[in-house]
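are you around this afternoon, could really use another pair of eyes. what follows is a protein written twice so to speak, once as letters and once as structure tokens for the fold. i want to understand how the tokens follow from the sequence so walk me through it. anything you notice is useful, everything is just below.
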Amino acid sequence: MFETEESRPWHQTLPGLIMASVLLPPVGIVLLWMRRGSPLFAKALGTVGLIVLAAAYVFVFNGWRGSGRNEAHYTEIEQDRARQQSVAAHQPTSPQPQASRGQPAAAASPGAAAFAHATRNYWTNYRGPNRDGRYEELPVLTSWPAGGLTPIWKQPVGIGYASFTVADGVAFTIEQRRRQEMVVAYDLNTGRELWTQGWNAEYTDSTGDGPRATPVWDDGRLYALGATGELRCLDAKTGLVIWGKNILTENGASNLPWAMAASPLIVDDKVIVQPGGSNGNSVVAYAKSNGAPVWKSLDDKQAYVSPMLVTLDGRRQILVVSATRAAGLVPESGRLLWSYTWETEMGINAAQPVIVGPNRFFISSGYGKGAAVVEINGGSPRTIWENVYMKNKFNSSVLYQGYVYGLDEGILTCLDVNTGERKWKGGRYGYGQLILAGGNLIVITDTGELALVRAAPDQFSETARFQAIEGKTWNYPAIAGGRLLVRNGNQMAAYNIAAK
């Protein structure tokens, strides 16, 4: 008996096939191959067409996820910056800086005089001068008001996970603004936007959108790396591009699942980046003056850890952590000095190592891994201790007076650096970040709260907590001249923490 179009189930009819294919192309492909009587060639051609349609849907969806879903936020930023420009245009030049968005003027802050006498250009790197999360420039407040600190200024900011670097009274960061990654300079005292420099690039994923790597200031220039590998050297006063390139394309590397996140490192006359290319293109040094390649090293798949300039075993070296190991490299040539295997369940390392002695470093990872202290002697690494008491996912620890403090999967923990013994564990901060300052831990939670915790091994003691900014906060804070800077993909704010 012949099967007519009318006698078939709805999902095997031509109208049913077309409707299913338009709504859900993968379902359409299945129904197409289940359809009896259709030539094999027609099925193959239809499959190709439905794959193209599915790809178009993904492209449109990703566009909506990125700029489209953030449209209101981008509009808010543009309106705020237009207001800033209007206010600045109608104000006479004055030594008294005006605060942003109706906040009190910075000149009224008790820490203004302290800032004027601060060491110039202190926090020019990710996590501070030595990338170790320690602030030692000025004395800081170790007792906060019951209602929390009052912001010097607070305003909207572009999307992304980068932190700030500060030089010459200017705070620099990188943000997503619509379909551009944008390096932005802000007046530290007022929050006023001074200049922007952008390029066409947009990164989105399930964890959040925007660039991740913090720009670095060096000798009047800014080095910024975007999520898709775009590296720019900018004039720090004007934002003009001096040179630029894509480190992934140039080194035959694929982007990481959660994008380029390692902050560039300036060493002597070189800028060090980690594209993760094979065939010796994993770690690359460029001339900081013009971007010319200087050396290339290793074959490792990279991770999300920023390179560090350290001294271990009496030797100045670049400490890198890839997806599978920690290693020391000669700054002048990139030659491998030593290697220490450090692998996690998912091949992900994201927390910064911490130098804890003349020839020792602390390393920690989440994803079921834990922590260890490693000693380098004569170019050979050995494990001093290893345990699961500290699992830094992407939240780096700090060292203070022989103890390591960090977030063990979101819970603040103190370990004895010599033995690995856990002294205490308490206080839930989610996947926030922390800075050591004045014998205290300044912790920002992943919901934008700021907390003050004593850095002491006897017991956990949180002395203050308040809501500083709104929204998911994975960004690392920064401190310069007694100004504490915090941001996420929604807001940015400055607080005075200089001791009176």
Remarks:
- Residues 40-68 form the longest helix (29 residues).
